[in-house]
């Protein structure tokens, strides 16, 4: 039930975000005097609506987003009633139309920033000093956290009934112990310890450690397991030894900030997220074959894109495991991604309209400098083939992503 509740909560959060996106368009358009005739949450048949002033507000039967209707978005629109010609959106100055069209993305960014600030003050944000690479983890001191078991094969899955107990736990080692030697071979880092343990034969081995500043020695019965090479998780497995421990990082994973310092931390985190989002968007074409492989029975790459279905499933997992920080960070990431995606200079998204607005302005400026007549507005009808192509490609990609999220979803927690 907690999983289904989480899925429903995250889906609701997405619906609210998209509705606020449309509200951003509507409110800025109204503020500039443009005519907005409709604002609805959802699509399909109307369930409930009312009219206030010149705008009809309501809820439709398919809760997959929302829309608002601004009169005269393009010169080719035929929805301008007599007397409203001056209120047609396309007649307004460039800067006003740019604000209206970017208001949706600005709303998503605002939701992400406010949520990040609240998290920074209440729960903390990911620590920028925490190791982010495998080499960074290997350089950490060999301070251990006991594992509940040893997974002999398929490392990475959760413990199951019948898995052998952790050798370190059976030898009375404790969380926070710092390993200093294995069978007399000194180790100073986590990477050293992994190398030495794997190179030691399974069975009895002496482990030197430090606990509360005092050195001690334990005899540990190292387990025989199958593991891929270090640094190559998809490589061929071989028989090695395991101590049954995980790394206990010396650096905290999160840092909590005061109300003022949280603004700077939020800005830094947002900058990093912007870079990561752009890199992720650049990799999308490369990930299409991986998505197809996941749909046709291959292993799902955790770095492949997810749809709102996949995001909602991850939200459900987060609630099921009481990982609310993960839930809200997913909400932040999704809003930031949607905000950036909507600014892409492609029709029919908002960025496409903004690009045309500024293309018209630049072209008019150039023609004026050349002493030629203003060529006027762009004919959107001539751009329809390109728009349909973008819609078709986007629709196929969305369908592929949703299918992968249904038949072979990404998971954050072992189930």
Automatic annotation (TrEMBL):
CC cofactor: Zn(2+)
Q: Which residue ranges does the record assign to the Peptidase M50 domain?
A: 10-363
In Gene Ontology terms, what is one molecular function of this protein? Answer: peptidase activity
Cite the Pfam families for this sequence.
PDZ_6 (PF17820), Peptidase_M50 (PF02163)
InterPro entries for this protein: PDZ_6, PDZ_sf, Pept_M50_Zn, Peptidase_M50
CDD domains, from UniProt?
S2P-M50_PDZ_RseP-like
Q: Give one GO biological process term.
A: proteolysis
Which residues belong to any copy of the PDZ domain? Answer: 162-201
How is this protein situated with respect to the membrane? Multi-pass membrane protein
Keyword terms, alphabetized: Hydrolase, Membrane, Metalloprotease, Protease, Transmembrane, Transmembrane helix, Zinc
Query: Which subcellular locations apply to this protein?
Result: Membrane
Major site of localization recorded for this protein: membrane
Whether RNA-binding counts among this entry's keywords is: no
Listed transmembrane segments: 99-120, 386-407
Question: What family is this protein classified in?
Answer: Belongs to the peptidase M50B family.
Q: What is this protein called?
A: Site-2 protease family protein
Q: Which organism is it from?
A: Micromonospora halotolerans
